[in-house]
């Protein structure tokens, strides 16, 4: 069976399963803010239209200035990307032919982008069931690689690494002349998070990737940014195609990043929903990853392979994210986004029905 490589677009998942896509379904497979995009985007939409007949600013200076203010990092240290995905691709291109370490299970694009650039990919496995990172074992591997990707909080587990762990990895990597690519695509869902951006000036081996598509629910627009020391930014920008980020994305990004209250509202919403559904899972004996963000891994501990549960949910028009292409998970968990209250209730009802029969 050929599984879709990502969540969202559930028609491909139903097709792979030989099922027809239900008319109405509840898609839990993409980790997007359930509150939708900030309302200001809709209000200003027609203003965006005025700008589509000019080329976008290839240096994205207005958006960079906004990020400079927000993150206290100079514009020379910022690169805007056509989604975090493009930035991952650019980094992998810069690493062509090098040895790269991945902490698994994690976002599959790191591996794909590295392999496309003929990197030698090495792995470090997190320890189930709690997905802990064995720092001593990881350290031993760092002397032998040119770069490592670390996703914090990690996709697909939703777990945040301790701050001290990340710092000691960055320091250890610096000693070995190894680059650390810290992917913070979901950092803004964490209620408490001290950014690593202030460390950019100290560590020439640190690259931070951010995405605007998750928090601001704009995956269709494609927007992210990368922070690193200016010479790294220069190298990466030379690999990027001119006008890679369209005008609508630039304008939308400027508006989104003004929305501190929207972020706070989302964090509280997600936190309350997560507490509510995790109580249900505990009561009904489902295993979950101790996520701090807007998605989590779930398994029925009475099954090894979760395929039967997966199939049951698809028949009920509930779309989880399969984990067959996450090395180290191989289908033993399912990933769900935290969605709106009604959709989460629907998921709990269907899981209660499953539990009743199994
Ligand atoms: C960890 C992580 N990083 C980066 C991305 C890419 O996000 P985008 O290209 O939509 O900004 C994703 C998307 O799922 C992700 O999960």
Automatic annotation (TrEMBL):
Cofactor: pyridoxal 5'-phosphate
GO molecular function: threonine-phosphate decarboxylase activity
Documented EC number(s): 4.1.1.81
Keyword vocabulary terms for this entry: Cobalamin biosynthesis, Lyase, Pyridoxal phosphate
Claim: Lyase is one of the keywords in the record: yes
CDD domains, A to Z: AAT_like
Keyword Transferase listed: no
Catalytic activity: O-phospho-L-threonine + H(+) = (R)-1-aminopropan-2-yl phosphate + CO2
Alphabetical list of Gene3D superfamilies matching this protein: Aspartate Aminotransferase, domain 1 (3.90.1150.10), Type I PLP-dependent aspartate aminotransferase-like (Major domain) (3.40.640.10)
PROSITE patterns assigned to the protein according to its UniProt record, in alphabetical order: AA_TRANSFER_CLASS_1
Residues annotated as domain Aminotransferase class I/classII large: 27-345
Pfam families given in the database record: Aminotran_1_2 (PF00155)
Biological pathway: Cofactor biosynthesis; adenosylcobalamin biosynthesis
SUPFAM superfamilies: PLP-dependent transferases
Function (record text): Decarboxylates L-threonine-O-3-phosphate to yield (R)-1-amino-2-propanol O-2-phosphate, the precursor for the linkage between the nucleotide loop and the corrin ring in cobalamin.
PANTHER family: HISTIDINOL-PHOSPHATE AMINOTRANSFERASE-RELATED, THREONINE-PHOSPHATE DECARBOXYLASE
Protein name per UniProt: threonine-phosphate decarboxylase
Lineage of origin: Bacteria, Bacillati, Bacillota, Bacilli, Bacillales
Gene symbol of the encoding locus: cobD_1
